[in-house]
Each structure stands twice: as structure tokens, then as C-alpha cells.
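User: SRPBCC family protein, Streptomyces spongiae:
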Amino acid sequence: MSRTDRASRVIAAPPATVYGALLDRESLETWLPPDGMRGRVERWDPRPGGGFRMVLTYLDPADSPGKTSEATDVVDVGFADLVPPERVVQTAVFEADDPSYAGTMTMTWHLDAAGDGTEVTVTATDVPPGIDQATHETGIASSLANLASYVEAAD
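Assistant: Predicted structure for SRPBCC family protein:
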């Protein structure tokens, strides 16, 4: 059974600026980890067919045990489609022994001009059943808030 999670936010920056932050290694390490986590990119290839590997570390693993280890989530992300400055489609596979986290989740980042800013909508499809929907949508919203703070400060 396929599940779809989503979140959106209007960001006070033009689509090209937001798109740039989606495809910059240092930017991703700064804004992508949701609240309560920090991220490190281990591999980086920002082109269609490329991707990245991110290690997300929980700042307090007692509240949120990791999928890969007690304190981490490791995810291999591929860039399935890049359409500047409108869309980034990623495939994500978590490293986990628990089969409830198995499978390939697709994350689509849509960027639509909205006045002087950009409406960013993130749609996650084929979400593994081990990922709680409310927690996932809260995490996506947190990443979007971080992205807004990051690009709005730079703009």
C-alpha cells in the first residue's frame, strides 16, 4: 500500500535561490536536517542520475531512536529529475535492518513563484510504513522552515 506525505511553505526568496539551496552540499547540511538532528553529506554528485549520501544524527536519541543505528539515520538519495528552477525529484533509500523502513521513497520538491517568493511543496510517495506519518510531515515542515531561514537570510 502506497502512502503519500506532504508539506508546503511560502519562502521569501525567488525560485532560483531556493533551487540553488536544494543542490548545494553545504546548504543541504545546514537546512535539511529537521529540528533535533544534524546532518553530514558523505557523497555528493548533483546531477540527474547522481545523488548524495547523508548521515543524520539525532541530538537526543532517547526520544527518537534511529533507523540505521541507535542515534543515526543513513539515507542514500538519488537525483531522479532536475528541472531548474521548478522541481527536484529525489529517490531515498534508508539503511536499516528493520524491513518496515525498506523500499524507495520518492521526494518531489515543487517550486512555484508566489509573488516575491516561492511556494515550496514537498510530496513524499511510497513512504516506508515504519516512518510515522505525523512525525514525517512534521520533519518535512521543519526542514522547510530551516530552508526558509537559510535562503531568506542569504537573500
